[in-house]
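Lab notebook, bench 4. Still working through the backlog of constructs that have no structural model yet. Next entry is a single chain of 256 residues. Request: give me the structure tokens for it.
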Amino acid sequence: MIRLKNEKQIEGIRKSCKMLSAMFRELIPLVKPGVETLEIDRWVRDWIKRAGGKPAFQGYGPAKNPFPAAICISVNEEVIHGIPSKRRIREGDLVGLDCGIDLGGFISDQAVSVEAGRVSKAVQDLNITTRECLYRGIAAVKAGDRLLQIARAVEGHALERGYGVVHEFCGHGVGLEVHEDPQVPNYPHGPNPRMSNGMVIAIEPMINLGTGDVEILEDGWTVVSADNQISAHWEHTVAIFHDTTEILTEPLEMYL
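Model written out:
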């Protein structure tokens, strides 16, 4: 069931989103060659605690295997849900950062792919295109229209550039829970409800340099491209109103 948010709830989600974007602005410059991804996770935990929030992802998931970190850090062929470890970022890596904050019960969600040092032109072009897919998807949001027009906008741009679109994972409703209805796929598939005033959704293209097929590693979380080609991931939390669409998380391109 899709949970439409009232003005008070959207204001709470908006505050959580602004906090998350503020964290990302400070975090992005720290993502450099030589840094352990586990160090980044520790920094994120400390920042969120000092800001008065809670990591929305930490402990999320099945009781037998909850997500162990405050932030998903997915490097190169890792598409999403990468678990921070002692792995050190290397020159030329593409580092996906995906995080959410629980601020008094209101959940934010945002992702960005950061180029560590100098990356190849192929990686840079993939990252640019994935970011463009995100904003094309957002531009397709309009109350009264059907949800899958977002997917058509995302997929059309990615395929035009010759990239693979991940099908098995997608965007989603957000705000009162980490994952809510509706699913927001990046290709036209599944239910196609009308977008309505009060909907809050996370739009998140996951675009691969090669095939869009993916696999899940033995840790039960880390999703990788099936051909080990590099993947990019960008995400915004968006609120839908009768007459406008508001990006609740702030653009981060200027900090890259």
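Notes after review: The two ends are 37 Å apart (CA to CA). The first strand starts at residue 54 and ends at 55. Flag for follow-up if needed.
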